[in-house]
Structures are given as structure tokens and as C-alpha cells.
Amino acid sequence: MQPSRDISRLIEIMAALRNPVGGCPWDLVQDFSTIRHYTIEEAYEVADAIERQDLSDLREELGDLLLQPIYHAQMASEAGHFDIGDVIYGITEKLIRRHPHVFGDLDANDAEAAQGRWEAIKAEERAAKAARKGEVIPSVLDDVAATLPALARAEKLTKRAARVGFDWPDLAAVAAKVTEELEEVAEAAASGDAAATHEEIGDLLFAVANLARHAGVDAEAALRDANQKFTRRFHHVEARVREDGVVIEAAGLERLDGYWNEIRAADKA
Q: Which residue from 24, 90, 198, 242 lies 20 to 30 Å from 108 (Cα-Cα)?
């Protein structure tokens, strides 16, 4: 077996790994549930390579991510459900159907018009799917995956609701809601009610996700950037503690905060 630029070779390799005769013992005992988390991890590693602008890593991580649908499709094929050809047919059919301004006779002169057509077709598809299943009229929130990271899901839920007019009028109104929720967190915490505090902090985070959407900011990306900034600044604090020959646990908040303010000031210089 030799490497190849042809995706058919990847399919052959995956089939060989899953072959009961001579296959890989580890691959043979996997199922959809046991490799599910790898699919999620690989997607995040692709996003990380993009954010770091490391194109060499991106090429490798895209390969790791590509393996995941091949793996799932191989297991589905073994069970007689579908194969990778069905997956590829399905996505090509969907792309053609959702781009009538490219593959049909409709016009979409800008990105906004194209996005609007895409969303309208998706809504029609959800309604048709519900009808086939004999279900009631689908919710606009249907198919917002419950497995999304909570912050990203909150942002997507508010975006869906906004499409039907359920939204704050402007950024200032959302900011006021954030302030209101923060006050309710303080009240709940002061009362000593742990369950209420849990609920109010959830409401606060949801409101902040909505604020990010109104500001045109990707909440998940913004939080990742904040995490990275905190990590970098705290590394500075740790380095300064070592320079001064101080045990960090005994340094005290005032000293640590002073080190923190050094790197903050450097960042703003």
C-alpha cells in the first residue's frame, strides 16, 4: 500500500484497517461513539492552525479531519447503512440545491442575497423534513446542534430567533440587558442561593453571547483570544516571581497584581 493524492486510496486504507482479516486491532473495536470525540478534536485543531496562520499544520490537520468522515462512513457501510459515496452524493446534491443562483436561473448579486437564499432554502428543507416525519411545523431553532460549545450555541440560537424578529433593537439595548443580568447575579450570590446563582450566571453568559452577535464579534473566538491573552500575561507573572526569587503561593495578591499590571502596560504601549 502506497500513499496517494487520490481520495480513493484513503478509502482503501480505512477499509484495510477495519478488515477483520489482517486489520488493526484498535480500529476493529471502534464504533461511532468511541471515535466521536476525535471528530470534534480534529475540527478544533484545524481551527487552531488557522488562527495561528500555520499553513503547514493546517494541511496536516485537514488530513486528520478528512479521515473522520471516511472512518464513520466505513463503519456505516459495514453495517449496511450507507457508504462514503452516499455521503459525497448527499453533500453535492445539497450544494447544488442551495445555490440556485450559481447552478440555476436565480440571481444573487451579493453575499447577503446569497446568504438569504441559502437560509430560505434551509427553512423549506426543515419544513419538508418535518412533514415527512408527520411532525408539527418545525421550530426555527431546530437543528441548532446541542453538542455545540455552549457559547457558540447561545450565539446561534439568538441569531435564529432574530430572523423572525425576536431580537433587541440595537447594541445598547443588549448591553443594558447584560448589566441587568449582572445585577441579578450579584443579588443571587448575596442571597446564598447556589441554584439561583447558577441560573443567573447562565443568563448573564447567554446575554453576553447575544451582545457579541450584535457587535459582529464571534463570541467563541473572542473568548479563546481572551484565554490566550490571560495565559501569556500569567506566564509573565510567573517569570517575574522567579526573577525575584519568590515562591508564587507566598507572593500575595498585591505583588502578583503589580507584575500583571506590568505586562498590561506593555501591551498597551
A: 90
Fold of 150-217: Helix Hairpins (1.10.287)
List, as one string, the DSSP characters of 116-184.
HHHHHHHHHHHHHHHHHTTPPSPPTTTT--TTS-HHHHHHHHHHHHHHTT-S-SSHHHHHHHHHHHHHH
pTM exceeding 0.85: no
Segment 87-126, tens digit of pLDDT: 999 999 989 988 888 888 777 777 777 777 777 787 777 7
Of 2.60.40.420, 1.10.3720.10, 3.40.30.110, 1.10.287.1080, which CATH number belongs to 7-97?
A: 1.10.287.1080
The span from the CA of 130 to the CA of 42, in Å, is: 32
pLDDT in tens, 125-165: 777 777 777 766 677 887 788 888 899 999 999 998 998 89
Grid cell, residue 221, equals 473566538
Residue type, 29: V
DSSP structure class, residue 22: T
Segments making up each domain of the chain, as ranges: 7-97, 100-132, 150-217, 222-268
Kindly tell me the burial class for residue 207, based on how many C-beta atoms sit within 10 Å of its own C-beta (0-12, 13-18, 19 or more): buried
Kindly state the average pLDDT of the residues 59-64: 96
Given this chain, do its domains 7-97 and 150-217 carry the same CATH topology?
yes
CB of 137 closer than 8 Å to CB of 130: yes
